[in-house]
Amino acid sequence: MNLDVPRLTYQQIKQKAQNFLNTYHPSLELPVPIEEIIEFEIGLNIYPFPNLYRTHRQNGFLSSDLTTIMVDEDQYKYYIPKYRFTLAHELGHLVLHRKIYQRYTFSKIHEYIEWYKSISNWDVDMLEWQCDTFAGLILVPEETLISECKKTIGKYKKEIKKLISSNIEVWEIWSYLPNKIASVYDVNPPVVEIRIRNSRIDSKVDLIKLLEGCP
Question: Is CATH 1.10.10.2910 what the domain over 10-139 is classified as, yes or no?
Answer without folding.
Answer: yes
